[in-house]
Amino acid sequence: MKKIYLAIPLLAMAMTACNPSEIDGGSEWGALSADQVQASATPIQVDGKNGNKIHVVNSSPVVSAWDADQLIENTTHTVTTEGEVYVTKIGTNVIRCLTTNIGGTPTTKELTVEVDTISYITPAISDRLCIGKDGAPKYFGKGYSASKIVLEQTIDKTSGKPGNSITIKSNPNPALCTFKWGTGTMTTNVGKIVNYELGVEHELTVEFLDATGKSETVSLGKFTAAAYSDLPEGIKLLTGYDPVSAPTATKTWELAPANNWGNGGNNDKKPSWWTTTVEGQGGSNGTLTFDFPNSTLTKVIFDEGNSAGDKSGSGKFSLDFSTTDDSKSIQFTLKTTEPGNIIYPIMINQSDYHPTVYDVTVISENELILRAQHTNDATWEGCFWVFQAVKE
Prior knowledge:
disordered N terminus; 392 residues; eight-stranded antiparallel barrel; mainly beta
């Protein structure tokens, strides 16, 4: 009689015996401590010096990744068993080998490397150094001196007064530079820094950060901007003024035909809670004309017999570009004086208060939205006025 052997139980036994922790990696793969990780990090030599590219290898039977902290970038994270990572600092650097064993348990082994020179410049550092541009450094390295910086304040062509920009013409320092002057900040080694606050003396400073990680802030002198040689776009959009093409121009606005008065969150760009019209509240439309050279705002009310009592008049205005803040929807700030305040300057839920400080939240050739903050911050409320440009 012929015998028949069943193979299914044997196959099941074979599958049960195929345990990766025992066959592929050995029992050490299931419980590998940091001191057991067989990893190395070796700087790649450039002209006999340790460069900032690092050859990394992990020969342990685990999943590997490598973390390296950088000077101005976020920590880099590279997933590989063997490959290259980089650092951006001369001197002692720590490379972290991150491993995960078969049980999912993470381990970190720190490896110390010594870097002598920056042989590889990252795009972020190269862009800030302005490598390839006139007057800029050719490498990223040690040392800096403020005496090497050549700068020039712009002179306004219309008035001959000191302008509101300073050009860093030459700066061969092989260090990252952050320039600050009044409302302006510049993070490139050469270029133009613009300050939008007139008539106030401000110190021009530069913060150096070299490839060793050394940082120092140095004064380059005090400068006052007396005229807008570099005009903010908001001035032209709001007032029509341009020092070259339109030195005597003015611009006129009126309330939009619908939903021109309302409230919303104190960081909103537009009224989002409730809107109506000024006319529907007993007020009157009219016009606002901005004369930038004379700093005059002229208001004309169409119906001065309106119950809100808003009257025509003129007064001084000023613009503050130091308040620009995207997180609060502030393009710049408009400050007015009575009687040349805006049309229907009445706050929702605070009708006894007439503001004279307005955030410009939206500005274009044809649209202007102003927002006044409620004096009680706890309400999180702003009042909005929506204008459109008057067509000539």
